[in-house]
Amino acid sequence: MAKRRPLSYGEYLGLDELLDLQHLVSKPRQHDEVLFLIAHQAYELWFKLMLNELETAISHMLADNLAEATRLIRRVVPVQRVLIQQLEVLETIRPTDFLKFRSILHPASGFQSLQFRELEFISGLKDEKYLNLHIGNEMSYEQLLKRWEAPSLWDGFRTVMEERGFNVGRKEKGKEEANYELEVEAILKIFTESKYSHVAELAEVMMEYDKYFWLWRQHHIAMVERVIGSRPGTGEKIIEKTMGPTSFRPSGVDYLQTTLGKRFFPALWAARTRIGAY
Ligand code: HEM
Q1: Domain carrying residue 212
Q2: Which of 27, 52, 132, 275 has its CA 20 to 30 A from that of 197?
Q3: Distance between CA atoms of 224 and 231, rounded to whole angstroms?
């Protein structure tokens, strides 16, 4: 039998393929496009890791294994901090240098990032408009549809609450408000009664995850405004197609501002207001 060649570092990591994936589009080659491209690729790798952790965390929640769910979501948080810090690298691109290759990127935009939407969907923020954006690309659509149909982190947390006897309502169209009220009431008990301390710990780490996602949105906007000001983004047309016609031509920053109110777990945040006396 032929002896197996010992595994090498490069083979294990698929480095030949990985390091051959930086296909610049600028002609003549623009120095800063390398940074721009690698930063985005690095983001997508981290997104892949986050999805892997969160998917398993959800299955632990559904199996009522709170310690493992908490541990895995807690792992995602330092990754999110890395993602925020990474924006600083992009901020070193001078507007004059970015403008040298930006126009060639049209209409490609981070707005189309499939894994970013998967992260939103897996967290419970499911907006059909973003799903429909991928109609026409069968593979992406199927991938996102799977996330749409699969239980989210919030579904997992609702199951955890139900396991402890809380009535958090049924998931039905039109019942969202009634359910939300029941969820907040249950969470209030979870945050304040010591017998639920393990659930409270899970809720805390979920808030941490939600907070860092929100902070990323804020830091990304600040970076965008610093680099391109209030110009329209490269995905302007796609945004209009996805979100519907707007009465004004929004700048990229205007669109991003509309996303700042998004939270994955609004009931966790709402419960904070109701803890204790005023
Ligand atoms: C110089 C660097 C960057 C600039 C100027 C920039 C600019 C923009 C703009 C203007 C938008 C709004 C959509 C549009 O008009 O196209 C946007 C959206 C977005 N960008 Fe960036 N971006 C940069 C880097 C990044 C990086 C590194 C990522 C990491 C994946 C990223 C991810 C996203 C995502 C996910 C959205 C959609 C957000 C949402 O819909 O909530 N961007 N970006």
Answers
A1: 29-274
A2: 52
A3: 10
Maximum distance among all alpha carbons in the chain?
77
* Kind plus residue range of the DSSP H or E element containing 20: none
21 C-alpha to ligand 1 centroid (Å): 20
Q: Reply yes or no: is the peptide bond before residue 28 cis, omega within 30 of 0.
A: yes
How many domains in the chain? Answer: 1
Ligand 1, atom 27, residue with closest C-alpha: 40
Q: What is the DSSP letter of 173?
A: T
pTM: 0.96
- Measured between alpha carbons, how far is 131 from 215 in angstroms, rounded to an integer? 24
Whether the CB-CB separation of 83 and 215 falls below 8 Å is answered with no
Residue 5 lies in a domain: no
- Return the pLDDT at 142: 97
CA of 70 to the centre of ligand 1 (A): 29
Contacts of 122 (CB under 8 A, 6+ apart): 51, 54, 55, 58, 147, 150, 152, 153
Report the nearest-CA residue for atom 40 of ligand 1: 111
CATH number at residue 49: 1.20.58.480
Q: Taking the alpha carbons of 25, 31, 36, 41 in that order, is the dihedral positive or negative?
A: positive
